[in-house]
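lol ok so funny story. i was supposed to be doing the assay writeup but got distracted and ended up predicting the structure for this chain instead. priorities right. anyway since i did it might as well share w the group, maybe its usefull for someone
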Amino acid sequence: RLILNEAELIMALAQEFQMRVVTVSLEEQSFSSIIQVISGAFMLVSMHGAQLITSLFLPIAATVVELFPFAVNPEQYTPYKTLTSLPGMELHYVSWRNTEEENTVIYPQRPWEQGGIAHLEKEEQERIMASKDVPRHLCCRNPEWLFRIYQDTLVDIPSFLDVLREAMKTKPNFKKVKIASTVHPGRVREACCQTSVQTPNEAKLTVSWQIPWNLKYLKVREVKYEVWIQEQGENT
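and the output, tada:
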């Protein structure tokens, strides 16, 4: 799902806002370096995709601009719009949709998990190719969804800037005071209980787990874990 005219888009953003524009790569950069860049950004621009979860690290009052490929309706896919509206996030959300079919590059011959549709019946392939709007569906193996989401997009710069300018006019006034961090450790992982009988009158219960994934990124001096044991019955 590449932006085919990424360099042109970068220039347009730099000229529009008179600010430095940088790119980040989940494949080539470390997680910590990406967070460092995004945590100081005025705006995050990205094609729809899991990489937009990094908007969690934007500062208050920043703008998230989500680009949608041809035939993908922003009103039906709102995880990152929802994220920006959560209490304490205080982010401004903008979506742009490619409405020009000629500005998209499709890959019907790819493997199905990368959006290929060559494995489908000819009639189904033709129907998907002719569709102008991906219908609602259950995530995430729908072939029409995969076909469209893995397109490459040539962003129409004039329409993109029009959407952005209009959205910036309605940007709400966020609080000037930065909210204190409310990030907490995630769930423990791979929780495991093992029991063993020691003697006729003694049993042993061993509980183990892996630490939360984000614990190493939090500045905490001490972490305490609670283990709750609930008796359910004589033999359980």
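The chain has two domains: 6-106+151-169, 181-229. Helices lie at 6-17, 31-38, 79-84, 122-130, 143-149, 157-169.
back to the writeup now i swear
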